[in-house]
Design brief:
The chain is mainly alpha-helical. It has 2 domains: 238 residues, no CATH class; 235 residues, no CATH class. The chain is 83% helix and 0% strand. Helix 7 packs parallel to helix 10 and helix 15 packs antiparallel against helix 22. It is flat and about 80 Å long. It starts with a helix and ends with a helix.
Length: 482
């Protein structure tokens, strides 16, 4: 085992030595590591002084964890330069041929470069955080709980692995250092949005959910590492000389995968059912299995926690009926909603799931799908607490349009999840671009052929059928309860 791991450290040590000799990386990294904690501490002190004038203790308590998150992030942005130049930089300097000609396996080369890219930012971030915590301990600021500090450290590590692994992938795919550096925005901007969501959770002080965020970031980091390992080929690095965006080839390849050579709508649908849906079998089964667990968990959790927060009385059924009517709008659905509005809303949600899923290997898209499933469990469980039969309520309030809407969302999410699975699956004879184009074409086939028609039918039923059935059911149920 050691014989397999030793070459990784040799590559990492060589890369680290080159990075420490480069003042363009070492200088800003040292300034951020040693200077930024003092700057952040001074800013925190001024904010605390200002907020305390108006009794803002809640904001002050959240300020230190937020500062730790920011301090751990900034050194990572500087360290991206080394990761972005890891392979393409050696290619420009003419040192890539001896490295690729060495008797090392592809995974050893990639892992060595990745490890060298991760160690400096992680050590820099941890050093900055340690300095800041020492400064905070000497001032009138509350130290965060140990569990929260541990979460922030894990998030910092996850951000480092996520950004560096993505940068190494870009370095492999680029043919010049300039092109690799231009792609850095595709790493920094998404991670910045991710940190905004994490900051929101920090200010809400929801420690339990933060562990799920840590797990999600770690999973996404592991998928990026897997992506690099799956598509790293030394022959590919030596073969490419120019970067070029051939839009005509992209459109031609997308059209070829989308049509599958069909000359008629009947032949196209036959290929959709025979070829495309067969590819979605495994992602769909995964989603269905997790959806069942999500529904059961949300139903049971609501049944055990909600009774402590509600008071059931003689008018509880009537109150629930009025709340349900105001939420669903079944009393005047024809005036408030119409089929095109609901259809466009569901289609927009489907496109958002697809967009978020593409950038997260399908994880975020699947998470949104599971949230919708959990909401069904929460609503049905809450209805049962007020005396309604959950199973009967499902069949009268969700099933009429859900039998079309839920399969549409399931198919779209499965197609998005398959994009991520296809990208992290080793396919040595194909590039990342070719795999992505084919997977996007499959998603478009499912969207046009099945999802859009199913959502259209579901919208019509949701407006003109479900409200009538649900209204009569709730009216009868309320009469019985009274």
């Amino acid at each position: 085992m050691w014989e397999k791991l030793q070459p990784i450290w040799l590559i990492s040590r060589r890369e680290l030595r080159d990075q420490l000799r480069d003042w363009r990386i070492l200088g800003p990294l040292l300034v951020l590591t040693l200077g930024f904690p003092f700057v952040m501490n001074a800013i925190a002190y001024q904010v605390v002084t200002f907020v305390n004038k108006y009794g803002g203790d809640l904001i002050v308590d959240r300020l230190v964890p937020f500062s730790i998150l920011i301090i751990g992030f900034f050194p990572l942005t500087i360290s991206l330069l080394g990761a972005l130049e890891s392979f393409v930089g050696e290619k420009e300097r003419g040192t890539i041929e001896p490295l690729l000609g060495s008797p090392l396996e592809d995974w050893q080369l990639y892992t060595g470069k990745l490890l060298a890219g991760i160690l400096p930012p992680v050590l820099s971030s941890l050093t900055s955080i340690a300095i800041f915590l020492v400064l905070v301990s000497k001032q009138n600021l509350n130290m965060p709980a140990f569990s929260l500090i541990l979460q922030l450290l894990f998030l910092t590590l996850g951000h480092a692995v996520l950004m560096v692994s993505a940068a190494v992938v870009f370095s492999i795919q680029s043919t010049s250092v300039k092109a690799a550096n231009l792609l850095a925005s595709f790493i920094v901007v998404p991670v910045t949005f991710l940190m905004q969501a994490e900051s929101w959770l920090l200010f809400w002080d929801d420690v339990n959910i933060m562990w799920y965020v840590v797990l999600a970031v770690m999973m996404l980091s592991a998928l990026f590492v897997r992506l690099g390992l799956a598509h790293f080929q030394r022959e590919y690095l030596l073969g490419r000389e120019l970067d070029g965006l051939n839009l005509r080839w992209v459109l031609r390849a997308f059209r070829a995968h989308f049509t599958q050579g069909a000359q008629s709508a009947r032949a196209w649908y036959a290929g959709l059912y025979r070829v495309t849906l067969k590819k979605l079998a495994m992602p769909a089964l995964i989603l269905i299995a997790i959806s069942i667990l999500t529904y059961v968990f949300s139903f049971q959790w609501t049944s055990s926690h909600l009774p402590a927060t509600i008071t059931q009385g003689p008018q509880s059924g009537v109150d629930f009926r009025e709340s349900l009517g105001s939420v669903l709008g079944w009393e005047d659905a024809a005036l408030q909603f119409n089929a095109p509005t609901i259809f466009l809303h569901n289609l927009r949600a489907t496109l958002v799931i697809a967009m978020l899923g593409v950038f997260t290997f399908g994880i975020l898209g699947a998470l949104i799908f599971f949230v919708n499933i959990s909401l069904i469990g929460v609503v049905l469980s809450a209805a049962g607490l007020f005396g309604y039969e959950p199973t009967l309520l499902f069949f009268v309030g969700i099933f009429p349009h859900g039998i079309f809407e839920l399969p549409a969302l399931l198919l779209s999410t499965a197609a998005v999840l398959r994009i991520g699975l296809a990208l992290v699956t080793p396919q040595t004879e194909r590039t990342i671009g070719e795999i992505l184009i084919e997977a996007l074409a499959d998603w478009a086939r499912v969207l046009v052929g099945l999802v859009i028609p199913l959502l259209a039918v579901a919208a019509v039923i949701e407006v003109y059928v479900t409200p009538i059935i649900l209204c009569r059911f709730v009216s009868i149920a309320c009469a019985i309860l009274q």
